[in-house]
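Here is one chain, start to finish.
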Amino acid sequence: MSKPVRILIVGTGGMAGYHAGRYKSIPGVELVGGVDVRAEQLATFAEKHGIPNTFASVEEAIAWGQFDAASNVTPDRFHCSTTLPLLAAGKHVLCEKPLATNAADAFKMVEAAAQAGVVNAVNLSYRGIASMHKAAELVREGAIGEVRFFEASYLQAWANHPERWSPAELWRLSTAHGSKGALGDLGVHIIDFATHVAALPVSDVSCRFAVHNKVPGNKHGEYVLDANDSATMQLKLANGALGTISATRVATGHGNDLRLKIYGTKGALEVLSIEDKVLRAHLEPDGKWQTIECPLVPENYLRFVSAIRGEDALRAPDFARGAEVQKVLDAAEKSAAEEGRTLSV
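Its structure:
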């Protein structure tokens, strides 16, 4: 066994617990520190996960220095400001998605990571879907020919059910609390999902938003619930292929479903996150749709640790990929503000 990889968890909100649990499942990984400005929550988190050292700021943790890598699970608007000092200190960083709240900050992070020469990854968690990985592999092998069209969606329903909202979710509905709505929260995943499989960048995008009345006055305590609940996009890829993307929190009957159909000159593929080990494919002229069993792929946490160890393993999406997706999100947000005008990415 190589020497342990020592992980610092930055931010101790709901998703941080999942990060901690996944790292603890990897042999040779130690959770050595936690960072949060909320002392009581930090103490509870550290006790629950057996973390021996706690800090009120990233700067305090860096001054201590006894860690190799950090998992950044702060709210979106703090990703850039908390990641840059870690990179400057030569620490490897896995950052939650989206990489930043705008492309300018995302590219600052890309440049800083390159200068530091450290492992960097953005937690686009659905890269762990086996059928997505297999679909991307088949497209790159030419199995469906040239990509011509795609349709993709990320469907949730929780915004329709205020009686089930948890306090930890409310910020996701409020622009004043840093939310970019369904576009930022779900769009980042489904844009990556579709364009990673297509193996093509986006050349232009048109986007529309909808905000629905979810509670009287669309206000819950201090939270004004004005972040977009749904976003629809039309995209053109670099080769001229067209596609549609939908991201919504009001799709009744859907818990957490990503779907992609992608069509090429020789075949087509269908990927469903709820059947993540199975890929549907149409690969023979005038043939039938068939089911392809897909081998499991590692989660980003293991990919991140493997990269730190220098192992030859499937790599997690890096900061450059996060910044590329952020460019599309920025253009989509601007397009929606201009009633869906098509904008270059």
